[in-house]
């Protein structure tokens, strides 16, 4: 938060019509708090001390600002002028967001290919499925699904004719929950 001045923690959320800012400040009443909006900057004060100040990302209806104090927080309700979704509460937060992804997708793709080349069992099954014909794929899906993940077969003639039974590893038992 660069220029958002807030002495306490806050959260914000929005609906189609409103933006809500919840400032965590205990023990204040509505008489202790005030809110001001100058068309750009929103400021919340308590006992003549600024506890929250931020340049808002979008304009709001100045006449519809509501301030509510509860024992644990101050909630400011702001009516949006337009019904658009706000990506961030303040201008500074929006400026910090990168507009373009900085990831090098070629490097990520090569890493993914290298992971596929690894010799673990999961990648072996992935390669078998990827390079298999339709009957083999069907057999793999049917056997794995019907056996609750305990059997994997590539023989459609054997698997297609019957229901695959659950076969847990030796020393373990299958419990259906």
Give an account of the 3D structure.
- The chain is of the alpha+beta class.
- The chain folds into 2 domains: 5-96, Immunoglobulin-like (Sandwich); 119-177, no CATH class.
- Helices cover 26% and strands 27% of the residues.
- It has helices at residues 91-96, 105-117, 121-130, 134-146, 156-159, and strands at 5-6, 10-14, 18-23, 33-37, 41-46, 49-55, 60-69, 74-80.
- Strands 1-6-5-4 form a 4-stranded antiparallel beta sheet, with no helix packed on it. The chain has a 4-stranded antiparallel beta sheet with strand order 2-3-8-7, with no helix packed on it.
- A hairpin with a 3-residue loop joins strand 4 and strand 5 (41-46).
- The protein is elongated, with a radius of gyration of 29 Å.
- It starts with a strand and ends in an 18-residue tail after the last helix.
Measured by DSSP, the beta-strand proportion falls in: 25-35%
List low-confidence stretches.
none
Secondary structure: helix percent: 25-40%
Overall number of structural domains: 2
Query: In one word, what is the shape?
Result: elongated
The CATH architecture of the largest domain is Sandwich
Please state the structural category: alpha+beta
- Give the topology string: H per helix, E per strand: EEEEEEEEHHHHH
CATH class descriptor of the largest domain: Mainly Beta
What composes the largest sheet?
Answer: 4 strands, antiparallel
Number of strands: 8
Assign the CATH topology of the largest domain. Immunoglobulin-like
């Amino acid at each position: 938060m660069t220029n958002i001045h807030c002495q306490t923690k806050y959260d914000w959320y929005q609906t189609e019509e409103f933006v809500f800012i919840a400032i965590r400040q205990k023990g204040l009443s509505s008489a202790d708090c005030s809110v001001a909006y100058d068309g750009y900057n929103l400021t919340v004060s308590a006992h003549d001390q600024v506890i929250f100040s931020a340049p808002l990302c979008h304009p709001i209806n100045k006449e519809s600002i509501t301030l509510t104090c509860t024992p644990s927080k101050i909630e400011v309700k702001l009516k949006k002028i337009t019904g658009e979704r706000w990506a961030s509460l303040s201008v500074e937060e929006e400026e910090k967001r990168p507009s373009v992804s900085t990831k090098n997708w070629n490097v990520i793709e090569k890493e993914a290919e290298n992971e596929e080349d690894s010799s673990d069992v999961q990648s072996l099954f992935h390669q078998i499925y990827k390079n298999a014909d339709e009957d083999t794929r069907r057999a793999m899906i049917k056997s794995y699904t019907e056996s609750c993940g305990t059997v994997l077969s590539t023989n459609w003639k054997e698997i297609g004719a019957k229901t695959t039974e659950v076969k847990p590893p030796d020393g373990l038992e299958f419990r259906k929950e």
